[in-house]
Amino acid sequence: MSSMLPNVLSSSNDNWVADEIPKSNEVYVTKRGAKLNLEEIGPKPTKKVALICCMDARIDAFSAFGFKEGESHIIRNGGGRASDSIRSLVISQQQLGTNEIIIMHHTDCGFFTFKEDEFRKNLKSKGFSGPDVDLMSFMPMSSSDINENIKQDVNYLKNHPLIKKESKISGWVNDLKDGSVRRVV
Amino acid sequence: MSSMLPNVLSSSNDNWVADEIPKSNEVYVTKRGAKLNLEEIGPKPTKKVALICCMDARIDAFSAFGFKEGESHIIRNGGGRASDSIRSLVISQQQLGTNEIIIMHHTDCGFFTFKEDEFRKNLKSKGFSGPDVDLMSFMPMSSSDINENIKQDVNYLKNHPLIKKESKISGWVNDLKDGSVRRVV
């Protein structure tokens, strides 16, 4: 019996989530069948807006914030940080015609749970090396007050030299207890 | 009559997409009502996977790739570029327990439509300044062959010193004509 365990474990380890995608995607493609060819919409968001939110797995951005295909750029990174979105935003505004930015932070975010110095030490203790270990900003939240972080991110964008001065910028909290949103800025 | 035009235009200019979010979100919150409190799932993706795709407005990541709330980190940036996802991926893997990465590029991407040098010149001609105009990489696709870009991005991750060596990494194309996906790597 025990000789089988390593195989069982290794087989479970070898499961790729990627292998599940074609089947789920087939359902989506079939459902879309009657609708528009998405290429016909073109790459410019019809609502001229870009939304920034966290990569958090619990956030279904289209459903939670009410977007349909074609309407809004969706930029997602760890923490939903503005400073990690500039490259995308500049292309969004200059090449693809957006003029509004919505920043959406959320409760229970993993970016409240670590400090940068400890995280760097932890990486080194696990054997990771290279200049990024010391130089990359991992962007944990700078305040434990979620409103404060949002205000900082909105101000960051308002003062960034590559963001259009006339941009409409708002900052929000998504409460993951019930999925609701609240505007902060 | 003509004296009213500026007001009409300015009022249409003052419409914020942000103002539409609370109403759409209310529908979502009501629908979710009977389901789990999302905070109870916790910030660690239950499928231990992070998906990277483009910010393109036509991609409804949860529906198109078959994810439910809680299952997968979703990282989105202009082009769905791996090199612009490292910070998020390191936190995803080291703090939040993921060990698989799915890179999903798509057809008709805006990042095929510009060259970096021209884009910098264009920014300057519009009056933008600061070191980022010359130093920031805006990451247009390096090849007109979509498969080539995906292979480059997968290799970039496989060789990055801060990405777990044992990561399961796959590369895909999302065809926006019908929403279908095709695995490349």
Question: How would you portray this structure in words?
Answer:
The first copy, chain A, is built from eight helices and five strands, in the order αααβαβαβαααββ. By secondary structure, chain A is of the alpha/beta class. Chain A has a single domain (40-183), classed as Carbonic anhydrase (Beta-carbonic Anhydrase, Chain A). Chain A has a five-stranded mixed β-sheet. In chain A, strand 4 (168-175) and strand 5 form a beta hairpin. The radius of gyration of chain A is 20 Å and the shape is globular. The first copy, chain A, starts with a helix and ends with a strand. Mean pLDDT of chain A is 92; it is low at 1-11. Chains A, B: It is an enzyme of class 4 (lyase).
Going by helix content, strand content and strand pairing, the class of chain A is alpha/beta
Overall number of domains of chain A: 1
Enter the CATH topology name of chain A.
Answer: Beta-carbonic Anhydrase, Chain A
Percentage of β-strand residues of chain A: 15-25%
- Per DSSP, the total helix count of chain A is 8
Number of DSSP strands of chain A?
Answer: 5
CATH class of chain A: Alpha Beta
Known CATH architecture of chain A: 3-Layer(aba) Sandwich
Strand line-up in the sheet with most strands of chain A: 2-1-3-4-5
Q: Write the H/E string of chain A, N to C.
A: HHHEHEHEHHHEE
Unreliable spans of chain A: 1-11
Oligomer: homodimer
Keywords (chains A, B): Lyase, Metal-binding, Zinc
Pfam families (chains A, B): Pro_CA
Family (chains A, B): Belongs to the beta-class carbonic anhydrase family.
GO molecular function, one term (chains A, B): zinc ion binding
